[in-house]
Design a protein that fits this description.
cyclic-guanylate-specific phosphodiesterase activity; 3 domains; 9-stranded mixed β-sheet; EAL domain-containing protein (Putative c-di-GMP-specific phosphodiesterase class I); 25 helices; Cyclic-di-GMP_PDE-like; Beta-Lactamase; 757 residues; EAL_sf; flat; EAL_dom
Length: 757
């Protein structure tokens, strides 16, 4: 079913004098002409109410970004979006960092250097519009002089290679490939490419039914005698989308038309092999993970299922309960867990109606115990066997007797679902369990049908919304007790405030699903962290106790490249009334700083990302830190070259044989801006995970020149509340450890205290 059809048609003749590009004659009239043919009451397929024409001064970058982002956010899988742009395009190449822009009347070259996100950036169209738009999208660019002379170096625009993203329903037609420049011509009164686009839409590319699809239009335009040749990439979804219906009479002579298909021939589009199984998968998961279970005990949270966590804490799910659960969910007669060893097997657990004697002649065949299979037992029925764990001497196999036929029709995906359900802990929220199953399918089979992707995304958003935040203090250490104090806090996500464990698996699985999940995760954690910290500060200090201490929040590299995340940071901080400069975003060293295959960052990725962070900091006045130094993609160059105010050393580094030397190197790099005269104050260094038995003592850490630590050695555990100050006794003990007065004796005492507790 066809959903909303939206067009955004843009034309810009003149740019600001600062950009130093010649004015165009026909870009704005070309946009009007394209808008008219798309919305023609007789032949167009777009409603004038949802076909937006933006020309001249009304085509400013801010309003275009706002319009396009709203369209993308509100889209559904059945929607269609067409974006047409006529005007100049330029490439800014500063110190090897390449950015492509469509030139709007408000574009300022000087401002762009300081704030590269203020123009209509191609990275924005890709990341915030096309990547977010759920339906089928078309981008048509008729860009004159597709380049710029910034810094005296002529550069040609690098159009985004959408063809690298086979999973997106986007198609592209651009007026000039790399190394080419589009042209206007007075004799035709149009840009040359738009002239042929209009001819195609008005009928010269129509099929036998008098319809013009995007694919036929693009083929027609590319087939014309245009130098340089336009570039195109047409996805299979886009090839059949009808843009206009001018009728057969408009096709004109000389246009090659294909012969009609024979009556007994039909075209069947290729589909995702899991598409047909998607309804059965959703039904099965709904049975295994019921959203409103009637069997939950009193006190069970709204996000837990029949086997979920309760107010009394989490409870393990026995194997026989899992067998009962899966038997009921699959509408089967019985289920059992068998252990195969050598030429024999034994039943470990089974449902009430499992009769081993009736099935022994089928189950005794052990040679295929290691592969998922269906055994046809005639009158005994069909038996699904799924290996769950294979060891050197034995194999555990789940046996399901007479499951629903539509589930058996799934084939291998059913086996993957059952393996995952048996492996995962069902004592947590039902959303978590279902997300883990869907993630297992994605890891096994790659791209999933849109309905499964959307289901997982909504489940992920729901469980993110249920997160609680706790705050762990970062403590300033000193030899004098009065100088020992809470410097700032780090916000940490938890499934609930009473759970000391971080939901690491839920946080990391976003990377399996891609940038949309990563950005949504980071936005949810940001909102929850800022709002919870504001509440904690008011609860502790009241309204008249000054500004809150600084707080740091984790963020992924990909989120910082996304405009919607940056907008969320600005809105959330403003809504809470915090000082932006008191917020630090911690960039994990476990994230690579590298472009996707469809992005062009230039030769120096660190320089590109540096520029991005500078632009965000200038706009929002926030701070950045590097987190988890010592693991993942950490490097001295990454630490030294990014505009950071803080470096956080991962706890794993403390156990390294050369930990002392590594910490000394970090401290030296942190002081580098002062040493080189680039700043009056160096970056602060925080050592994470400092414990009583850490190989590196507080005395050694202090001696290196590091003044901040985070960990249980401070006596401060993560909590949803914050403190005015540390207790006197703890300040004195930390000061004594820094001086070396207590060292190992204190560590031993603390370990004894923990054992006793």
């Amino acid at each position: 079913m066809d959903g909303r059809r939206t067009a955004v048609v843009i034309g810009v003749n003149r740019s600001d004098a600062d950009v130093a590009l010649p004015s165009l004659r026909y870009a704005e009239s070309d946009a009007r002409a394209v808008h008219e043919v798309l919305t023609d009451p007789d032949t167009g397929t777009f409603d004038p109410a949802t076909a937006f024409l933006r020309i001249g001064d009304k085509a400013d970058a801010w309003s275009l970004r706002s319009l396009l982002r709203t369209i993308a956010i509100e889209s559904t899988r059945s929607d269609t979006l067409l974006i047409y742009f006529a005007g100049h395009a330029l490439t800014a190449d500063w110190n090897g960092v390449v950015d492509d822009y469509l030139v709007t009347p408000d574009l300022r070259r000087a401002t762009l250097r300081e704030h590269p996100d203020e123009g209509l950036r191609m990275a924005f169209l890709r990341g915030d519009v096309l990547d977010k738009f759920k339906g089928t999208a078309f981008l048509i660019l008729d860009c004159c002089r597709a380049g710029s002379d910034l810094d005296g170096h002529p550069q040609q625009i690098e159009m985004m290679p959408i063809s690298g993203r086979h999973s997106k329903q986007h198609s592209l037609l651009m007026s000039a490939p790399t190394e080419g420049s589009a042209r206007e011509h007075e004799s035709v009164g149009h840009g040359l490419v738009t002239r042929h686009i209009l001819d195609a839409l008005n009928g010269k590319a129509a099929d036998d039914e008098g319809r013009v699809t995007f694919g036929r239009m693009a083929d027609y335009v590319v087939g014309q005698d245009i130098d340089p040749k336009p570039g195109q990439f047409v996805q299979s979804w886009g090839a059949t989308k009808v843009l206009t219906r001018p009728g057969r009479a408009a096709t004109g002579a000389g246009v090659s038309m294909s012969d009609p298909l024979p009556a007994d021939v039909r075209i069947v589009p290729l589909e995702n092999p899991l598409e047909r199984s998607a309804p059965a998968i959703i039904d099965l998961l709904s049975q295994i993970f019921p959203p409103h279970p009637s069997t939950a005990r009193p006190g069970t949270s709204s996000t837990t299922g029949a086997f979920g966590a309760t107010s009394e804490g989490q409870r393990a799910v026995p194997n026989n309960d899992k067998a009962e659960l899966l038997c009921a969910a699959m509408r089967a007669d019985a289920a059992a867990l068998l252990e195969y060893a050598g030429s024999t097997f034994r039943t470990i657990s089974a449902t009430k109606h499992f009769h081993e004697d009736d099935l022994h002649h089928l189950l005794r065949r052990t040679e295929h115990a290691g592969t998922a299979r269906v055994l046809d037992g005639g009158a005994a029925g069909r038996v699904l066997c799924v290996p769950l764990r294979q060891g050197m001497a034995s194999t555990l196999v789940l046996v399901v007797v007479n499951p629903a036929q539509n589930l058996l029709d799934m084939g291998e995906p059913l086996a993957r679902i059952l393996e995952t359900v048996w492996r995962i802990d069902l004592s947590g929220p039902v959303e978590k369990g279902e997300i883990e199953v869907l993630t297992g399918l994605r890891q096994s089979f790659g791209r999933l049908p849109a309905r499964l992707y959307d289901r997982c995304f909504e489940l992920y958003r729901k469980i993110l919304g249920s997160f609680s935040m706790v705050f762990q203090p970062i403590v300033t250490i000193d030899r004098l007790p009065r100088q020992v104090e809470i410097h700032s806090y780090e916000a940490l996500a938890r499934l609930n405030a009473a759970d000391p464990r971080a939901p690491v698996d839920l946080i990391r699985l976003a990377h399996v699903w891609g940038d949309t999940f990563v950005v949504e995760r980071d936005k949810a954690i940001l909102r929850k962290a800022i709002e919870s910290y504001d509440e904690a500060h008011l609860s502790c200090f009241g309204d008249n106790e000054g500004a809150p201490r600084p707080v740091s929040i984790n963020v992924a590299v990909r989120s910082l490249l996304n405009e919607s995340y940056v907008d969320e940071v600005q809105r959330t901080i403003a809504g809470a009334g915090l000082r932006p400069s008191a917020v630090t975003l911690e960039i994990s060293e476990q994230d690579p700083i590298a472009p996707r295959i469809y992005e062009a960052w230039g030769d120096d990725s660190l320089a590109y990302f540096h520029q991005r962070l500078v632009a965000i900091a200038d706009r929002l006045d926030i701070r950045f830190a590097v987190d988890d130094f010592g693991v993942g993609h950490s490097s001295v160059s990454r630490m030294a070259e990014l505009p950071l105010t803080q470096i956080k050393v991962d706890r794993a580094l403390l156990r390294h044989p050369s930990a002392y030397q590594e910490l000394a190197l970090v401290a030296s790099v942190a002081r580098q801006p002062v040493t080189l005269g680039h700043a009056a104050v160096g970056r602060s260094v925080v050592v994470e995970g400092v414990e009583d038995d850490s190989p590196i003592t507080l005395k050694e850490i202090y001696g290196i020149g590091i003044r901040h630590v985070q960990g249980y050695i401070t006596g401060e555990r993560p909590s949803p509340v914050i403190k005015r100050e540390m207790g006197r006794e703890m300040r004195e003990r930390i000061a004594a450890l820094v001086r070396g007065d207590l060292e190992r004796g204190y560590a031993a005492d603390r370990r004894d205290e923990r054992r006793t507790a």
